[in-house]
């Protein structure tokens, strides 16, 4: 079929071999082999696998060989052994999910260190008057913004887990360096480079999740590691409370950076060793298990992750309206986040609590986030066949609007504190949003661009957000709270527009399929790196 104009794409079947995966050799393809084991056409560009795998290339190899994919195609013709699949999925879960949860704990604790440092005297010691504190909050995301696209492109060039671990190590090092800052200028420089290192974190976590888990499983897995943010908030509160008891030569805020940075760098070394870069290269799985891991994703339209940069997918991303909606989703969701993550402790203290009480009150805030995230992803999982995920996202966002309204207009301490806790529901919304990006974008280059785009929106939102919190309005920051409330309302509009971009193409493709359009050929299985628009069998989750 499609291989008439692409000689590099071969259409063959193959029996499964038991050769060692690392030493897998490409075999010559003979026309008489066609049609032996299965009736489907197999499309897969083997150009990278034709290069010899020695030395550094063996370490950096990213894509399955053509022979491996031929065998995978044969496996796709069979019914997978369900008990074996469940056993493998349990093994995958305990290999990947705890590591991502720990990653995300450090990711969030790292970002809130400045907020806790503000309670322990950094503003006084570094003379952060006027908008300087807001600038330090925002400048982190300038580095993130600068590195969002280059960092994501490099993910296609290097082993994924090792690349992320290297970035985690670097952000731990730069966090420790912030503990030694002597001036506002020192902090500005260090927070820019820290932001650059963290720019690949969430996109990387999403890429790992999409690589190992099916589209139905991804919201649950993302919800679990996103819920670890609540643990991070609680842990940050406990660390802050402990640091508040320190009476030593160094100022307490410096210990905040030094302790968390050192722990972060140490964990990065562990992650780089434990987490595999892909199912294809993972240790601890035999050849058949690796093929089962990938074959169980055959209904996701991208069972094989090919890590190559493709310019045609860049063009398609630019012309796809969903790309811009992902940006606005990231923007509207994170203008409030830029405020609450950096001014949350200051606002809580402004409700009438002292410094140590404020640190402890972040623990139930984190617990509320975790509970709401887990409930939301559970409901999403149970209703995935109904395609109501975007409606669920909009409904939970309404909770955050109510929370900000209570903070702005509540007439007592309790109502303001409850409102603050309700604003944490936003993290449940964004965890579901990330699963939409990972599950609704086909093609590795396009997926990386979509991830980078939503996180460019995240960066811009976090840059803008802190400036809505006017120093002269401390400790109530009413203008900032109202801006956050309006931004959440705009987020609901973006979510509903995204739903339209998912539902309309699905209906159109279903109609063409029902009418017998020849392009919708169920006998063609593409193992190529096709996008959601190129693969006409692709259906969006909404």
What would you note in describing this structure?
Strands 1-2 form a two-stranded parallel sheet. It has 19 helices and 2 strands. It is mainly alpha-helical and 542 residues long.
Order of strands, widest sheet: 1-2
Beta fraction: under 5%
Characterize the main sheet: 2 strands, parallel
Number of helices: 19
Assembly of the depicted chains = single chain
Rg calc: 24 Å
Subcellular location: Membrane
Protein name: Major facilitator superfamily domain-containing protein
GO cellular component, one term: membrane
Biased composition (Basic and acidic residues): 17-50
Strand and helix layout:
Blueprint: E1 41-43, H1 55-60, H2 66-75, H3 82-119, H4 122-125, H5 132-155, H6 160-178, H7 184-198, H8 201-212, H9 218-243, H10 252-274, H11 287-295, H12 311-319, H13 321-350, H14 355-382, H15 389-409, H16 413-422, H17 426-440, H18 444-464, H19 478-514, E2 524-526
Parallel strand pairs: 1-2
Helix pairs in contact: 2-11, 3-8, 3-9, 3-10, 3-13, 5-7, 5-18, 6-7, 6-8, 6-10, 8-17, 8-18, 9-14, 9-17, 12-18, 13-14, 13-17, 13-18, 13-19, 14-17, 15-16, 15-17, 15-19
């Amino acid at each position: 079929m499609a291989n008439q104009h692409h000689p590099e794409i071969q259409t063959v079947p193959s029996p499964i071999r038991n050769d060692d995966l690392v030493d897998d050799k490409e075999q010559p393809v003979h026309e008489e082999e066609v049609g032996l084991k299965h009736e489907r056409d197999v499309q897969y560009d083997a150009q990278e696998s034709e290069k010899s795998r020695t030395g550094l290339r063996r370490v950096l190899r990213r894509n399955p060989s053509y022979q491996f994919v031929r065998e995978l195609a044969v496996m796709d013709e069979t019914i997978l052994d369900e008990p074996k699949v469940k056993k493998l999925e349990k093994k995958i879960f305990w290999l990947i999910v705890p590591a991502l949860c720990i990653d995300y704990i450090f990711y969030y604790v790292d970002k809130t260190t400045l907020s806790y440092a503000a309670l322990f005297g950094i503003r006084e010691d570094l003379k952060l008057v006027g908008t300087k504190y807001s600038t330090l909050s925002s400048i982190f995301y300038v580095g993130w913004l600068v590195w969002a696209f280059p960092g994501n492109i490099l993910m296609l060039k290097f082993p994924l887990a090792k690349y992320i671990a290297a970035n985690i190590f670097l952000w731990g090092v730069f966090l420790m360096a912030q503990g030694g800052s002597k001036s506002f200028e020192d902090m500005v420089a260090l927070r820019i480079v820290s932001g650059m290192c963290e720019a690949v974190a969430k996109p990387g976590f999403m890429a790992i999740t999409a690589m190992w888990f099916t589209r139905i499983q991804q919201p649950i897995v993302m919800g679990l590691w996103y819920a670890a943010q609540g643990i991070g908030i609680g842990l940050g509160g406990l660390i802050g409370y402990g640091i508040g008891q320190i009476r030593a030569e160094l100022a307490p805020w410096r210990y905040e950076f030094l302790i968390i940075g050192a722990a972060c760098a140490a964990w990065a070394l562990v992650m780089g060793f434990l987490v595999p870069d892909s199912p294809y290269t993972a240790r601890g799985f035999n050849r058949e298990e690796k093929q089962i891991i990938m074959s169980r994703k055959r209904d996701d339209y991208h069972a094989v992750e090919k890590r190559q940069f493709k310019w045609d997918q860049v063009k398609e991303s630019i012309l796809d309206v969903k790309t811009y909606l992902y940006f606005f989703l990231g923007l509207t969701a994170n203008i409030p986040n830029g405020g609450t993550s950096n001014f949350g402790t200051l606002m809580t203290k402004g409700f009438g609590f002292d410094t140590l009480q404020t640190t402890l009150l972040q623990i139930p805030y984190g617990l509320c986030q975790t509970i709401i995230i887990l409930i939301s992803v559970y409901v999403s999982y149970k209703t995935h066949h109904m395609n109501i995920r975007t409606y669920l996202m909009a409904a939970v966002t309404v909770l955050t609007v109510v929370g900000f309204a209570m903070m702005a207009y509540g007439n007592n301490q309790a109502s303001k504190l409850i409102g603050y806790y309700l604003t944490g529901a936003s993290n449940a919304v964004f965890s579901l949003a990330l699963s939409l990006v990972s599950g609704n974008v086909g093609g590795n280059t396009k997926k990386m661009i979509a991830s980078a785009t939503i996180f460019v929106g995240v960066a811009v939102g976090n840059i803008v957000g802190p400036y809505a919190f006017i120093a002269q309005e401390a400790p109530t920051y009413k203008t900032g709270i109202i801006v956050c409330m309006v931004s959440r309302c705009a987020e609901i509009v973006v979510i509903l527009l995204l739903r339209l971009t998912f539902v309309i193409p699905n209906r159109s493709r279903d109609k063409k399929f029902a009418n017998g359009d020849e392009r919708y050929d169920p006998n063609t299985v593409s193992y190529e790196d096709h996008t959601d628009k190129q693969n006409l069998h692709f259906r969006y989750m909404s």
